[in-house]
Amino acid sequence: MGIDDRFHAPPPMHQQPQVYNIIPIHDLLADHPSLRFPEVRAVAAALRAVGDLRKPPFISWDPRWDLLDWLAAFFCFQKDNVRNQREHLVLHLANAQMRLNLSPAAADVDTLNPAVLRRFRRKLLHNYTSWCSYLGRRSQVRLSGKNNNSRRELLYVLLFLLVWGESANLRFTPECICYVYHFMAMEFNQILDDDYVDPNTGRPFLPSFSGENAFLKCVVMPIYNTIKKEVESSRNGTKPHSAWRNYDDINEYFWSGRCFQKLNWPINFSCNFFVTDTVDKTKRVGKTGFVEQRSFWNVFRSFDRLWVLLILFLQAAIIVAWTDADHPWRPLKKRDVQVKLLSIFITWSALRFWQSILDAGTQYSLVSRETKLLGVRMVLKSLDALTWTVVFSVFYWRIWSADGNDDRIIEFLKAALVFIIPELLALALFIIPWIRNWIEELDWSILYVLTWWFHKRTFVGRGLREGLLSNIKYTLFWILVLATKFSFSYFLQIRPLVSPTRSLLKLNHKGYTWHEFFGATNVIAVVLLWIPVILMYLMDIQIWYSVFSSIVGAAIGLFSHLGEIRNIGQLRLRFQFFASSMQFNLMPEEQHVTTTQLTLIKKLRQAVHRVKLRYGLGLPHGKIESSQVDTTRFTMIWNEIIETFREEDLISDRELNLLELPPNSWNISVIRWPCFLLCNELLLAISQAKELADAPDRWLRLKISKNEYRKCAIVEAYDSIKYFLLAIIRYGTEEYIIVDTFFREVDNYLQIEKFTEVYKMAKLEKIHAKMVSLIEHLMKPPKKDHHTKAVNILQALYEISIREFPKVKRTTDQLRHEGLAPKSFATDEGLLFENALKLPDVGDVVFMKQLKRLHTILTSRDSMHNVPKNLEARRRIAFFSNSLFMNMPFAPKVEKMMAFSVLTPYYDEDVMYGKEWLRSENEDGISTLFYLQKIYEDEWRNFVERMRREGMEDDSELFSKKARDLRLWASYRGQTLSRTVRGMMYYYRALQMLAYLDSASEVDIRMGSQQLASQASLMQNRGLSGVPSQKLGRTTTSSGVRLLFKGDEDGTALMKFTYVVACQLYGQQKAKGEPRAEDILYLMKNNEALRVAFVDEVNLGRGEVEYYSVLVKFDQLLQREVEIYRIRLPGPVKLGEGKPENQNHAIIFTRGDAVQTIDMNQDNYFEEALKMRNLLEEFNTHYVIAYSRDKYGAKNHMYYRCVQLVVIVLIVLVIVLLFKLTLFSFSDLIRSFLAFIPTGWGLISIALVLRPFLQATVVWDTVVALARLYDLLLGMVVMAPVAFFSWLPEFQAMQTRILFNEAFSRGLQISLIVSGKKQD
Q1: Which of 388, 723, 732, 1298 is placed for a possible disulfide with 666 were both Cys, Cβ 3.0 to 4.6 Å?
Q2: CA-only gyration radius of the chain, Å
Q3: Which residue has the higher pLDDT, 128 or 108?
């Protein structure tokens, strides 16, 4: 190869396409919201610091190139790989620097902070550094204290990213990448070393490979082809596991120093590591770590410790039980029993020998010329176990031959002590796990020599032992399980069989006239007697494990108070604390003291505050007023959640109005809770006031104020009525003055606490009725006598309020004097309010919406407890509200949160359901759409209502003008890609809203809340008037909080979140014009943060095909799909399993510190996306999750507890009658219960083993019937104590674990489906 062909220079910057992924790094002066962050410019400036680096020869260097271009010129990386990793690094380092909490004096945002780069380098190269230490090799990352140390450190990071970004399927072999990076970093050091001269050429050093895409062709492709040929030789995985190498086997080859000796650098392709025609198949490298041998004995080999424990206890238990002692500890004092118990060491050593044989039999294929020591260890372990068996047998025989001589017993015990030393050492390391972790993480050769006997040395899985506290919990759990199991086995399985066994063995032989299969012995009968017991003895441990796991899980859930808020009734009790809990948990972390800075007193205060929130202590209405910014923030977030419910058609327009939190208006002095919380509260207050008419004001106020919602309903209704009446009466008229004077008088009496003393509480019902009639009249469309009727109602309301309501009747002169009657006789003669009434404009949507809310408060009754009706909406609201009271890390501002990506693999599943497919009918005449309409009947009604609000006039338009909306509605209720995309894009929407709330001022939030209320009312009014309102779509719409955005929120959200869908066949689908490709394009068009990665196959002719990993997006400015990156692959993506390899090719396009992989059939919720900032902080800080107690829960299930109490009483009564009327005793009850569980389980397990033989016979039906009976009885036994405890208030939280799934309560209307009836 000529020297001129050794380099492929990156294209000049002016030829680089202007299309970008997230941020336009190629043009830092562009008008893009992400470029407003100085941290982005700081990282870009660090990349341009090429300075005095030796320039690549034989190319024309462009001064606009940066460090990535410099590395690409030397090591021949692909240009789009360079562009991709450039954006990757800029985003990562910029986000990391944005998270720094530096003082203003120490912060230099225009320069890349060295600590940020150092932290990222250590994290990125941690695996490489550990690998070098593991193999005893010096790391090639060599940093010094020179001035250019930061640039050199950055170059090491860039080199690894470029290697990783182009490694394709080699990313499944991380240590292989470490090997490649090790030598490339070595060549990089030689390039930077000005004094180093290539000994072969006598010139400055150049890398060992060159040419266009040389790294891909010379390094990646050979190893990839080896993996590909191994997979091809496996016959699609049907070949034995030991006959071919997979990704793990290839990677494990680099866990040994032989990779340096065999492969070398440049890579020696004649090495037996590669699969080539020149390498003999018998000499190729085989398995190096693990071989899967399918055998029945794997059951013993995998759980050898458990089997050994069971067998040894069985032997000891039989020895002790054979003495017929009343208590098992008494025979232990006898010398002969003690000597017999020593025989368990013979059994133990024999089992260890059998384990060594199984290890050798299953892992023998790992032994090769290069792994001879592995074979030596297998042989030595077998010989060691066999030797111990012989030694123990000889020592045991010597004890019996000497009639239990103490000296020989001591000799046996000394040998046993040596035998169990490894077990004691393992126990000690288990008790102090940090020592074992420290030893495993050390890479000393002497430690490898000392531990060679016990286990094989591996690179992964070291130092992963749990902490001391976890080990103690784990140990106590198993002690409890084993103690129970062994006690049950000894007293109820083994000991009861000793006496029958002796009787059978002593039974004298008698002659029989029939043929005798077994001679003069009863041993076979004894064996048949013990076999079922031993089988149950070996199997029933899983039953005890399941029982105790359930008990422990129930206890943890009980004391952690999981699932306290499970229904709307419990939600009402806690909703008033929502604003406080959201402020405490979801507010930006900068407003808190960081956890490391918290003193003990402050931590205690936080704990007390959490307890108050959880228990409902304190007076939240006294701390949070409707005018506070925190409450307004919560209002905006809550309303946005409810808005997403409406967009998903989980609730109707009416339910939307009932659930939303309206902003403060009409001069209302309390928090305006959602209407569904205020249902029936005003009517109850009126009834309460009527009953306590003679009570003093203070007493009545205290009585009403015990219920926060009732108090707020009264105050809001009073303030609203005052504002409403003064608004519909012209200002300055006598009527206006009368109404204003009346309210001033009422306010005065309320203030001096003489309201009940002055007014008749019984008249409140009449005033309420007239007010309701007035509001209902004004809400109707105007008619001819509309004004007159309104005047009449107002006149009647005036007469009741002025003349009937006060206890002391006043004359007309007194009323005129006090300003409560017109002073003009002309006005008095006519109808009052006739000329002063100013009817509200029906087009004033804001006023009419407030009027509707007032009407709802005045007339709502108990039926509103069913809001929302949709079970999914109720479940989601309850779950979100419950999570608000959890202990969670504080949320940082969006700008300071960890960046993350979501990756979804997609092959060829449905993107959206087609219109014709929805209408097509099956053989029963049932269409998919009809089926969905019946399953989601309420959601279908809400969808039709929304379509009518958006301009649909007839249902027939659903398949014409609204076809896309119909397809989306159906697709969101199936396992489609569109459903997953909608759910994941909630992250982007949530981050946009949170970014706005982080940066908005108090004025912005207050004014924005009013603007949102006006806009929402306007949209609903337009829809009701027949004018199409804005579509309630996804990120393309300007609904909700998006109306208030300032323009920077999109850039902030894009910096923190990326969504990549790996649509592997998208290129082929586009070429064929498939509908799936059109639907994917629609998703990209309507979701700004969505990116699609696919594999493009380019046919070059003559059977040659090149494969590329391509990333595309929809450009909103160009209004078309654009290609962002195109990176060539070494070959087809799919070699093994399709899903992980589909994800692997697209993972290079993800960004951020964390990647969430979500399957195509998954979903997400907007309210859960709000907590993503808190969740990501779990990577930095760990909290112990604790919950408080629900003191209200017991009141909501009294009916069910009463039923359970009756059942429990009846059961107890039956048991007592058995005790009194029969010889049945309590011990009989316990024995029957303990015998029932393992016996039934054992019999069913045995029947399952024999199922192939019994299923074709009549016996199998009997087995199935008995199994159902066993299931029923066991369920009754298990549920009886649960039902008893759930009746108690303290244990009511356990009901969460045993309730049926609410999905089963949906009305599927099977009868209609089966009968084939359809809606017209």
Answers
A1: 723
A2: 40
A3: 128
How distant, in Å, are the alpha carbons of 167, 273, 1115 from that of 179?
Answer: 12, 14, 40
- Eight-class DSSP state of 493: I
Question: Does residue 341 carry a pLDDT above 70?
Answer: yes
Buried b (16+ CB within 10 A) or exposed e, 1014-1049: bbbbbbbbbbeeeeebeebebbeeebbbbebbeebb
Distances (CA, A) of 328 to 332, 494, 1028: 8, 12, 85
Residue closest to 12 by CA, chosen among 73, 81, 75: 73
For residue 21, count CB atoms less than 10 angstroms from its CB and return exposed for 0-12, middle for 13-18, buried for 19 or more.
Answer: buried
Cα–Cα distance for residue pair 696/699, rounded to 1 Å: 6
What number of CA atoms fall less than 13 Å from residue 491's CA on the CB side?
16
Cβ(689)–Cβ(761) below 8 Å:
yes
Nearest alpha-carbon partner for 1079 in 974, 977, 960? 977
How far from chain centre, in Å, is Cα 276?
46
Joined tokens for residue 1236: 């029932």
The answer to whether residue 366 scores a pLDDT higher than 50 is yes
Contacts of residue 702, defined as CB under 8 A and 6 or more positions apart, other chains included, come to none
* Torsional sign, CA 873, 874, 877, 883: negative
Distance CA 859, CA 866 (A): 16
Q: What is the DSSP string of 611-640?
A: HHHHHT-S-HHHH--TTSHHHHHHHHHHHH
Confidence of residue 1040 (pLDDT cuts 50, 70, 90): low
868: preceding bond cis by omega (within 30 degrees): yes
Residues 6+ apart with CB under 8 A from 1111: 21, 84, 1060, 1091, 1092, 1093, 1123, 1124, 1125, 1146, 1149
CA atoms within 13 A on the CB side of 495: 15
Q: Per-residue pLDDT tens for 304-335?
A: 788 888 889 898 898 888 888 878 888 888 88
936: which DSSP letter? T
User: Cα-Cα-Cα-Cα dihedral of 24, 27, 28, 31, to 10°?
Assistant: -70
DSSP letters, 111-143, are S--HHHHHHHHHHHTHHHHHHHHHHT---S---
In this structure, the strands spanning 1120-1129 and 900-906 are: unpaired
H helix intervals, 961-1074: 963-971, 977-999, 1002-1024, 1049-1056, 1066-1072
Beta bridge pairs of residue 588:
891
Q: How many helices (H) and strands (E) in the chain?
A: 59, 6
Residues 6+ apart with CB under 8 A from 260: 135, 137
Tokens (6 digits) for 1214: 């039956």
Chain segment 692-725, per-residue pLDDT in tens = 888 888 888 888 888 888 888 999 999 999 999 9
Q: What percent of the chain has pLDDT over 70?
A: 77
Contact 140, 186 (CB under 8 A): yes
Helices 977-999, 963-971: inter-axial angle, 10-degree rounding = 90
Cβ-contact 1100, 1093 below 8 angstroms: no
What is the pLDDT at residue 369?
Answer: 64
For position 1047, what pLDDT does the model report? 72
CB atoms within 10 A of CB 967: 24
Express each pLDDT in 869-888 by its tens digit.
999 998 898 888 878 777 77
- Does the pLDDT of residue 1308 top 90, yes or no? no
Name the amino acid, one letter, at 231.
Answer: V
Most confident option among 123-137, 248-262, 544-558, 1204-1218: 123-137
In the chain, the amino acid numbered 765 is E
Closest to 1144 measured CA to CA, from 59, 78, 73, 164: 164
Residue keyed to tokens 């982007």 = 988
The pLDDT tens digits for 633-643 are 888 888 899 99
| 1156-1178 pLDDT per residue, tens | 999 988 899 999 999 999 889 88
Q: What amino acid is encoded at 643 in this protein? A: E
Residue 79: helix, strand or coil by DSSP? helix
